[in-house]
Design brief:
Layout (H helix, E strand, L loop, with lengths): L2 H10 L1 H27 L75 E8 L3 E11 L4 E12 L12 E13 L3 E15 L12 H5 L4 E15 L4 E13 L4 E15 L2 E16 L9 E17 L3 E14 L4 E17 L3 E12 L3 H7 L12 E14 L4 E20 L18 E22 L2 E15 L10 E10 L4 E10 L2 E7 L8 E7 L2 E11 L4 E8 L7 E3 L2 E2 L4 E10 L2
Antiparallel strand pairs: 1-2, 1-26, 2-3, 3-4, 4-5, 5-6, 6-7, 7-8, 8-9, 9-10, 10-11, 11-12, 12-13, 13-14, 14-15, 15-16, 16-17, 17-18, 18-19, 19-22, 20-21, 22-23, 23-26, 24-25
């Protein structure tokens, strides 16, 4: 660096310039000395160095760094104080904001609720429908209610030779109380029904009307029941139901059925554990069998214990358990022990769009005279009663919502049942005026068989708004039989379509369509040639039953309605030789009120 350049640096950076000059002079002297020494000591020779004492390194005293260091800079510049001020200028504006107005919330019209209602309707075939319900508020927590229902018809199906009228009446009373930690309800009722065995075989065409009129085809059912429900909050004992039911008829048949089902629940390691207990006692008798050789008695007691563990997350729901059942048949001195699986799984794959579910379970289903007559009222009072043993029932499916208004459900299942009850028509005895009204091949019996069933089910529900909804579902069944050649009176295909709608604030309505596929039955007669037995495989045609109703709300309390049933007018046979009424139109009114 020449002197001229050094002067420039010193002028620009006074301190740094002097430092650079000193550094340059020291560097020149050092390099010159090193060069001279290297030239003078070019041949140093050899020398022995003896180490007298080993090197012992030591640490110098450390000093503590002060929190506030002291600066020794020769140049110390003071901070300059910055002074500032704001110069504001008002800006004229011609914008005037509009005054805001709160949006009014549309208030829904308050629905007036009434404690009582009465309905009366009359139609062709002299069909009568009557209903009445009344609720009395005893206190803020206790209520008492009365319910009455009557449905009857004077008959008149074309082509029949026996009376086809029927009568069905029920009267119920209930008392409920909802306390802070406990809820209980008691219900009692009476039932009275009359049906006629009007399904005579076409083979009776040659029998005179006088003989036909001598047949007493009426069958009376009368019974009563009492039920109770108890629920307790924050207790291991969660809920219990109990009931007792009696059923009798005009052929000295009688049946008592007592049931109790307490439920317990508690947590183990943060997992909910449920224990259901089922007690079922059935006792009954029929005055005779179909051969009129002896009476039929049955007395069965079933005790079941069903523990289960639940695991629930946001997307997964799992319930794992089993049911152990002891069944004691005292009339036949027979005791059986069964264990059934009870597993259900549900997993949300895609929010509410796709939910997969499945499981496997089973159970002992106690058949009874009451349950049978509820499904088929044209039974003969000569039945053999025994439970059905469903060994297992496995199912898997998908459900969810395709849109906010369209829901679906598809399911496949496979199950195996032992002693499944099937209805089949009783054989026709040789004509005799002393026979009972059910012994002319015009009543039904119960037979038991082992069956494996493969089923496919699908359902769609569309709810566009609270004013319109429509749904459709269908089931396909494939039966694998043993002990019986055919699945008597079981359809392979069933489907239904249903909808409800509100046309306006005043008008409302609904419609339903039911399809039932072909069924098979087997008819045997003693009136064959020369007194021999004749038999026939009967195929009952599939049928469609269309129903609709329309109503008009005159005001909040009074409304009028018209109901139509079997609108296609097909007198199909639901049971062998039992055609139904054709087009049925019933009109009436409903009235809601307070006392």
């Amino acid at each position: 660096m020449n002197s001229k350049s050094l002067n420039k640096v010193q002028n620009k950076f006074p301190f740094k310039g002097r430092f650079l000059g000193m550094f340059s002079m020291v560097s020149i002297v050092f390099l010159t000395s090193f060069t001279l020494q290297a030239q003078e000591n070019e041949n140093l020779g050899t020398e022995v160095v003896n180490i007298v004492k080993p090197y012992s390194p030591t640490l110098s005293d450390a000093f503590k760094v002060k929190e506030t260091p002291v600066f020794n800079d020769s140049l110390n510049s003071d901070k300059k104080e910055v002074k500032y001020s704001i110069f504001s200028v008002p800006v004229a504006s011609t914008f005037t904001p509009a005054k805001g107005k709160a949006t009014a919330v549309e208030k829904a019209k308050k629905i007036q609720l009434y404690d009582n209602y009465a309905t009366l309707g009359v139609g062709n075939y002299l069909n009568v429908l009557a209903e009445f319900y009344s609720n009395f508020e005893i206190s803020r927590t206790d209520n008492f209610g009365v319910y009455f229902k009557h449905n009857s018809s004077q008959g008149g199906i074309d082509g029949l030779r026996l009376d086809d009228k029927f009568y069905d009446t029920k009267l119920e009373g209930n008392y409920s109380s909802r306390q802070k930690d406990m809820t209980y309800e008691i219900k009692v009722g009476l039932e009275h029904q009359i049906y006629n065995w009007y399904g005579l075989s076409p083979l009776y065409t040659g029998v005179s009307d006088e003989v036909i009129n001598s047949i007493d085809s009426k069958h009376f059912y009368f019974g009563g029941f009492a039920e109770g429900l108890l629920e307790i909050e924050d207790s291991y004992f969660e809920k219990a139901t109990a009931s007792i039911r009696y059923l009798g008829d005009n052929f000295s048949s009688s049946e008592f059925n007592i049931k109790a089902s307490p439920e317990f629940g508690f947590d183990v390691l943060d997992f909910p554990v449920n224990i259901d207990v089922n007690l079922d006692y059935l006792n009954g008798k029929f005055d005779r069998d179909y051969l009129n050789t002896s009476d039929l008695k049955y007395s069965i007691f079933n005790f079941g214990l069903a523990p289960s563990v639940d695991y629930v997350t946001e997307d997964l729901s799992v319930s794992v358990g089993f049911e152990a059942v002891v069944s004691m048949d005292s009339e036949n001195s027979d005791t059986n022990f069964y264990i059934y699986p009870n597993v259900e799984v549900s997993y949300r794959l895609v929010d509410e769009i796709l939910i997969a579910y499945g499981g496997v379970d089973g159970g002992l289903q106690q058949n009874s005279y009451y349950n049978f007559k509820e499904e088929n009222p044209f039974l003969s009072p000569t039945l053999l009663i025994t439970p059905t043993h469903q060994q297992y029932y496995g199912f898997a499916g998908l459900k969810g919502k395709l849109t906010s208004t369209l829901a679906y459900n598809v399911k496949a299942s496979y199950g195996n049942e032992k002693d499944k009850a099937l209805f089949t028509v009783n054989y026709e005895k040789q004509f005799d005026s002393t026979l009972e009204g059910y012994e002319y091949g015009n009543s039904f019996n119960v037979v038991y068989t082992d069956v494996s069933t493969l089923s496919f089910f699908g359902e769609l529900n569309l709810e566009l708004s609270k004013n319109f909804s429509i749904g459709v579902n269908g089931t396909f069944n494939n039966y694998d039989m043993s002990k019986q050649p055919e699945p008597w009176n079981l359809p392979t295909v069933e489907a239904s379509l249903f909808s409800s709608f509100n046309i306006s604030e005043k008008f409302y309505g609904g419609a339903s369509l039911f399809f039932v596929g072909e069924r098979k039955d087997f008819f045997v007669s003693e009136n064959g040639p020369f007194g021999s037995l004749s038999s026939e495989l009967i195929i009952l045609d599939s049928y469609i039953d269309a129903n609709a109703h329309v109503g008009y709300r005159f005001n909040e309390q009074l409304s009028f309605f018209i109901k139509g049933s079997n609108l296609f007018g097909d007198s199909y046979q639901k049971w062998t030789n039992y055609p139904v009424q054709g087009i049925q139109i019933l009109g009436g009114a409903s009235y809601k009120f307070d006392w």
